[in-house]
Write a structure and sequence with these properties.
single chain, about 700 residues, alpha/beta, GIY-YIG endonuclease, Rossmann fold, seven-stranded parallel sheet, six-stranded mixed sheet, 20 helices, 29 strands, about 30% helix, globular, binds adenosine-5'-diphosphate, binds zinc ion
Length: about 700
């Protein structure tokens, strides 16, 4: 035998099975002292998995040293993940109460797991052979900036931020992002910029604008719609510093970017920045954290900022936290010289219309007039399908889903009843399944019905060229196929559609040039929702939707946003009419402060799924009890516990999905650190409870920190 190689002990972050209770890196042996951040392949149980070296271990506990296995190898010449990235991952894991290895590995492109060292070496070679990242020059003279843009950029240049760019739709926020990026990239030949967007499929235009400005070689995108090789290539380009700009959805916030100097979060209020499974992180919040960590400037942009960001950007003298710099751009581009203003908001009092009216006569007339002039209209209805419920008037049968506490939606197009929660689909019955009555009817309306109805109503109207009006629908059903959304959007842009019906999908970000009328058909339900964020979401949806109208200065003056409502005097609609986000935000914040809700308090939800509702709630009750009895150290944790309020477990809004009962329990605190401390201390208690035979009925549990829907 030859001399045994020297042994080094390394702690490696690996993706341990969820809820195994192992949150920390595992110890392995290596013949080389691998630097932290190195990607390695290690044995785990019977498998070999990818891991990230987290630390060198000087002297492991004897039992760890005995049981430690050898690493299987390293991943070629890939430079180690830097300290900042590791600090970010460490923070995300701690803050969102997940295992470090899970968060670290989920942040890496999946293909890294399957590549051998040789394959890896080949990819790296290809990467270095490719065109180098473009040298960026600041080209400020291209277009004169508006005074709002000028002053926003000036402050971004001079102050450290984070910045909340509060700019009306069409005020030129994107231009500000690009100029800020240009300056950062021109100043430092290595600097990198991250641009986050809520849904990349909805914003191909943004990508196109960046590529046009900065060149294809400098921009990579990162989102779940890419193939595994594309994702790997993009990730490697960012990690190697070759990609100067990374444009992506929430997952991109965890990308390795060693020279990150600027982070932009566009439409920062958008709920899709919050991950809804696994580590339930908020990409917006992590972006702010990451900016501070690496000294990168952060710009959060929105026409309707989240109330969290609004509060952060409110001056201390107004009761805000004063942490963010608010930069306002209240005018649309062109408005300064009397051009494009904002659409006029018109409310239709539906309580004066005959019951069951879907489209009021004045709205119908307005749509018809516009279509006859060759202009486009967008009709928003946040319900897909033909009708949300099918029912029998004789016996009271309703189209309940057998597996969920929800109704199955009637889809007329393929004559199905579909559950939007579990996917259970059946053909529509010919007669009532319970009494045989042949005359079964619908309750409520969805986008399919609106599309059909508006088509019939507008049949007599002709377009300027004498051809009939064309109605199209865009929602999750119409865009199932890959690329179908792009195709449908392209048709709208090309003017092949006169009236577009859709869900909130059509309200976001698209730059429709010929739309002069936007209508919310039935937005009232959000006014009375049990979710305290519902009004905030409705307001931003409506204002975003209004922003789709009149983007072209030539048609802007006459553009309109219609709201059909039973409550035309509601303060939310009053604020909308005035395009006054600030006053809406201030009044919401006053209510939130009085009710003790975020952003004035901090929340976490403990969720449990089980075979029965009782079992789910019993688990949550036991967790609260365990916290009360176990967290009595007389020190920090106990003190923190005393700063939290635990609410009783309740069923979730949709209580049963796919035959699993769901319950949740809210924990609230005025102090974020106290809440954090308590949640961390609860982790081992929860793992122990889960293993207790008494809670055998539990399917899974999870902690949601800063939940969006409560
Ligand atoms: P936002 O992102 O705030 O909705 P955009 O950045 O998309 O607004 O700008 C709206 C439109 O105005 C775009 O077509 C953009 O090209 C144009 N634009 C932006 N800044 C200027 C400017 N300084 N001068 C002329 N046009 C501009
Ligand atoms: Zn019946
Ligand atoms: Zn179902």
């Amino acid at each position: 035998m030859t001399n045994p190689a020297p042994v080094h002990w390394i702690a490696v972050a690996v993706a341990t099975p969820a809820h195994s209770g192992i949150g920390t890196p595992l110890t392995y042996r290596s013949t080389e002292p691998l630097p932290p951040g190195t990607l390695v392949r290690v044995p785990l149980g019977k498998r070999e998995v990818l891991g990230v070296v987290w630390a060198l271990v000087e002297e492991p506990e004897p039992e760890l040293a005995d049981s430690a296995r050898d690493i299987a190898g390293t991943l070629g010449e890939l430079p180690p993940l830097d300290e900042h990235w590791r600090a970010l991952i460490g923070f995300a894991a701690r803050y969102y109460q997940r295992a470090l290895g899970e968060v670290a590995l989920a942040a890496l492109p999946p293909q890294l797991r399957t590549l051998s060292a040789t394959q890896m070496a080949r990819r790296l070679k290809r990467l270095h052979a490719a065109e180098p990242g473009q040298k960026i020059e600041a080209r400020e003279s291209l277009q004169a900036l508006s005074t709002d843009q000028e002053s926003a950029l000036g402050r971004i240049e001079q102050e450290s931020g984070p910045f909340l760019l509060f700019g009306t739709t069409g005020s030129g926020k994107t231009e500000v992002y690009m100029r800020a990026a240009e300056r950062v990239l021109a100043r430092d030949p290595e600097a990198q910029v991250m641009v986050l967007v809520p849904e990349i499929n909805l914003t191909p235009q943004l990508e196109a604008r960046f590529v046009t400005r900065f060149g294809e070689a400098s921009v990579v995108s990162m989102h779940s719609g890419l193939t595994p090789p594309q994702r790997l290539a993009g990730w490697l380009a960012a990690h190697a510093g070759q990609a100067r700009i990374v444009l992506g959805t929430r997952m991109a916030v965890l990308a390795s970017m060693p020279h990150l100097a600027l982070i932009v979060v566009d439409e920062e209020h958008d709920p899709s920045y919050k991950q809804q499974e696994g580590a339930r992180y908020s990409a917006r919040d992590l972006a702010v954290y990451r900016g501070r960590l690496v000294g990168a400037k952060v710009i959060l942009g929105s026409a309707t900022p989240s109330l969290e960001s609004w509060q952060q950007s409110r001056p201390v003298s107004d009761g805000g936290s004063g942490r963010y710099v608010r930069l306002a751009m209240p005018r649309r581009i062109g408005a300064e010289d009397g051009g494009a203003g904002l659409p006029r908001v018109r409310r239709v009092d539906m309580s004066r219309q005959p019951r069951g009216t879907l489209i009021s006569p004045p709205l119908l007339a307005a749509i018809g007039e516009r279509a006859a002039r060759g202009e486009q209209a967008l009709l928003l209805l946040n319900r897909r399908g033909y009708a949300p419920v099918l029912h029998c008037a004789d016996c009271g049968w309703k189209s309940e889903c057998p597996y969920c506490s929800a109704y199955r939606v009637f889809h007329k197009i393929d004559r199905t009843l579909r559950c939007h929660h579990c996917g259970f689909t059946e053909r529509v019955p010919r007669a009532c399944p319970s009494c045989g009555n042949l005359d079964i009817g619908t309750i409520g309306r969805g986008t399919e019905q609106l599309e059909e109805h508006i088509g019939q109503l507008l049949a007599p109207v002709m377009r300027p060229d004498g051809t009939p009006i064309r109605v199209a629908r865009i929602d999750a059903d119409s865009t199932r196929g890959k690329g179908s959304l792009e195709t449908q959007l392209a048709q709208v842009h090309a003017g092949e559609v006169d009236v577009l019906v859709g869900t909130q999908m059509i309200a976001k970000g698209h730059d429709f040039r010929r739309v002069t009328l936007v209508a919310a058909i039935n937005p009232d339900s959000a006014l009375f929702s049990s979710d305290f964020r519902a009004p905030e979401r409705l307001f931003s949806l409506l204002l975003q939707a209004a922003g789709r109208a009149g983007r072209d200065a030539a048609v802007a003056a006459a553009s309109e946003m219609w709201v059909q409502t039973q409550h035309p005097q509601h303060p939310l609609y009053e604020a909308l009419k005035a395009h006054d986000y600030s006053s809406f935000a201030e009044s919401q914040l006053t209510e939130r402060a009085q009710a003790g809700l975020p952003p004035f308090t901090h929340l976490a939800l403990l969720r449990a799924d089980a075979r029965t509702q009782d079992a789910a709630q019993a688990f949550l009750k036991a967790a609260a009890e365990a916290a009360r009895t176990a967290l009595t150290d007389g020190g920090d944790v106990q003190a923190a516990l005393e700063h939290t309020t635990w609410y009783p477990p309740v069923p979730m809004a949709v209580q049963r999905v796919a035959n699993v009962e769901r319950a949740q329990m809210m924990i609230e605190s005025l102090s974020r650190p106290a809440l954090q401390r308590v949640l961390t201390a609860c982790q081992p208690l929860l793992h122990k409870l889960r293993a207790d035979p008494e809670h055998r009925g539990i399917v899974r549990w999870a902690v949601d920190v800063d939940p969006l829907a409560v």
